Amino acid sequence: MTAQASGMHIVSRRALLGSSILVVESALRLGLVAAVSLWIAHELGPARFGLLNHVSALVAVFLWAAMLGLETPLTARLAHSAPSGLLLGSAIALRLLTGLLGAAVVVAAAVLLHGPDAEAVLLTAIVALSVPLSAPFVVDAFFKARGDALAPAVARLVATLLSCGAKVACLLLGGGLVALAWTVALEALLVSAALLVAYRQRATAEPGGPLRVQRTQMASLLRECGPYLVAALAAGAYMKVDVVMMGVLSSDEQTGLYSLSQKLCEVLYLVPVIVVDVLFPALVRHQALHGQGAAPQVFFDLTFATALLATLLAIGFVVLALPALFGEPYRPTVGIFLLHAWACLGIALNHARFKWMAATGREALAPAVAFIGVLLALLLHALLIPAHGALGAALGTVAAYLVSGWLVSYAIPALRPVAAMQTRALWPWGRLWAEWSRRRAAVAAPGSQG
To answer: What is the pTM of this model?
Structure first.
């Protein structure tokens, strides 16, 4: 058996199946949520939509903090046959405590930021309920440790369908912002309940399956999750800092115009993420065959090429369709999206680099890279939003993603090999054509099927 053939078994069929299930689930859920969000934007108008998204983004930052980065150490323990009921029960209790604290802090933050605006504070208080209600999300670590992707995927998808149904009902019945805010808390409750049901069905055959709480386990988990909390908080802030700062430094209307562009971009960002996740097993095999630090240029070429093509197609679609779908109030979003969409290229370069770091055991560099992106985004948004509103936020987002996703690779010695491949990937067409031609020739060669 050749080295190439043996390398094909580095990633098991079960792992490949699990990855495929997660990719499909993410695409379905994000597509469904995005479609309903766009409908909400159309019905509410820019100002009301902007207020709702600012509140949701502010709560999301505290949700990431309350999650504590528990998933990684919890999955590792469960993978070593630790008693699942004791660990998960203790983790849920810990997350519930930090969730209650996080909800209180985010409401206090809303009072400081929007003191005179009682509606904004009320909306924040309602949405903040999702922080403690999401405590059972840690059950997902049990399924990851067992290599079972289907059960939690179905649970999350069903919960998302139900919560989106509740949002649609609010729109049809004219429920308003407060009713829509309650659907955010409802979604967290539904996902938690679905995951707990799925765990109960799976864990009945395991010893120690029933959930139990132990204070010493809670303390041990809290000590272990410290380094992961830093990375989780950086990632959460990185993704939501633009909308949070828009709500603080600009008007609700400008925030709404930007939020619609962001919702469209979230769908666009899924393209390079899916491509990278699909190619990741091949990258792992390449690392095993060619040594640590090696990475095929085609991995970065394909990621960047698909991101660029998707960005151009998305821009064409938005220019043609958005004014007709959303009307005159959202016409400025077209110009915002023409700039904002290019952040997809930074996402592609960053996600491909992260997977390379995961394949080569360099995940420890991820928090530093994320914090550079957060600090840069904070600085750029603070400078650009007061002067240019939503366009300034879009420019700051694009610059932060490109600098942290690409140029920072040159500043960190361990990432400079990736930086060179990222730069070459900016013009991938010749290499991709050569690779495609080579593969066609290999398939057509005599004996290639043997």
So the answer is: 0.77
